[in-house]
Amino acid sequence: MIFMGKTTTIQLEKKIVKELKKEKRYKKQTYSELVRGLLEAYRGHRRQYDEFLHSIQQEKMAELWDNKEDEAWENA
Q1: Reduced to 3 states, what is the DSSP secondary structure of residue 71?
Q2: Within 10 Å of residue 32's Cβ, how many Cβ atoms?
Q3: Tens of pLDDT along 14-64?
Q4: Which of 16, 61, 67, 64 is nearest to 38 (CA)?
């Protein structure tokens, strides 16, 4: 639902509008609904990527910090 005063006009290249039209799920879907859905998908993907990187970093940090070579130097 769109209310006057709560919307804005943005400039998009015509080729972007053409691509957005292809992504509509139904004919009367508004661009606002479409962009909101794209943002939610992006945020979800970004969150998954961040979690993936964090898990890799945890493994690597454990590998770097929990090793016998460092323990040998600490006790030398």
Answers
A1: helix
A2: 13
A3: 999 999 999 999 999 999 999 999 999 989 888 888 888 888 888 878 777
A4: 16
**How far apart, in whole angstroms, are the C-alpha atoms of residue 35 and residue 9?**
14
Give the whole-angstrom CA distance, residue 23 versus residue 60: 39
Domain ranges, ordered by start, for the chain:
14-74
Residue 30 contacts by C-beta under 8 Å, 6 or more apart in sequence?
2
> Is the distance from CB of 24 to CB of 37 less than 8 angstroms?
no
Alpha helices in 1-76 (DSSP H): 14-23, 31-65, 68-74
